[in-house]
Amino acid sequence: MFVEPSSTKLLPDPLPEPYIQPPYTLILEMTDVLVHPEYDRKSGWRFRKRPGVEFFLNQLAPLFEIVVFTHEVGFSASPVIDGIDPHQMIMYRLFRDATKYIKGTHVKDLSGINRDLKKVIVIDCNKAATELNERNAIILKKWEGNPADTTLVDLLPLLQTIATSGVDDVRAVLDFYRQEDDIVAAFKRNQARLREAEQARLQKLEQQNKQGRSWGGMFGR
């Protein structure tokens, strides 16, 4: 039983120049976030791939250093990760031996990942597993194998917006949505409000310009 992480430095130092080090780090649980385990007597344990997982990884790899950090053990999890990531978008893998065992839960302590936590997002389906760094966490509902699920694809715009906006501290953004039951739906509503406000601003500006041209025509030569 692993009680403390096997190392105090779970990831190597960020890549030096001329290598490209993405400014943000995205940490993903494997089980019930990226895949769902299923068992039958004929085949034993099998892992179903979540819809959109390869697209999700491919889209985010240029923006994030992607790390799978799972409570599963390495010898069983590694082949599963190989299967969902044929293009090797995942930069690092951390397993059960990197967790901290607290009250029956394998907790991911991000203080040991050797990264600025202002730039780290962890996605999990177990709130207790992120209790030491809850401000960095996006907690999803467990995926139980529904083939019509769109959660990963729906989550892309939020993560892409954070990365491309150059957010100084991701925790401030996640705090904004923390009280919401569905962070994806909340982000969509917020984006819709922003679009409506921008559209109203542009319409008002256009109206003011029309009025200006009208007065100019009235008093011009």
UniProtKB/TrEMBL annotation:
PROSITE patterns tied to this protein: FCP1
Gene Ontology biological process terms in this record: protein import into mitochondrial matrix
Annotated GO CC locations: TIM23 mitochondrial import inner membrane translocase complex
Pfam family, one: NIF
Classification via Gene3D superfamilies: HAD superfamily/HAD-like
Keyword set includes Transmembrane: yes
Keywords recorded for this protein, A-Z: Membrane, Mitochondrion, Mitochondrion inner membrane, Protein transport, Transit peptide, Translocation, Transmembrane, Transmembrane helix, Transport
Principal location: mitochondrion
Subcellular location: Mitochondrion inner membrane
Residue ranges occupied by any FCP1 homology domain in the UniProt entry: 19-162
SUPFAM superfamilies from the UniProt entry: HAD-like
Entry membrane topology: Single-pass membrane protein
Free-text function comment from the UniProt entry: Essential component of the TIM23 complex, a complex that mediates the translocation of transit peptide-containing proteins across the mitochondrial inner membrane.
Family, similarity comment: Belongs to the TIM50 family.
Subunit structure comment from the entry: Component of the TIM23 complex.
PANTHER family, A to Z: DULLARD PROTEIN PHOSPHATASE (PTHR12210)
Name under which the protein is recorded: Mitochondrial import inner membrane translocase subunit TIM50
Species per Swiss-Prot/TrEMBL record: Nematostella vectensis
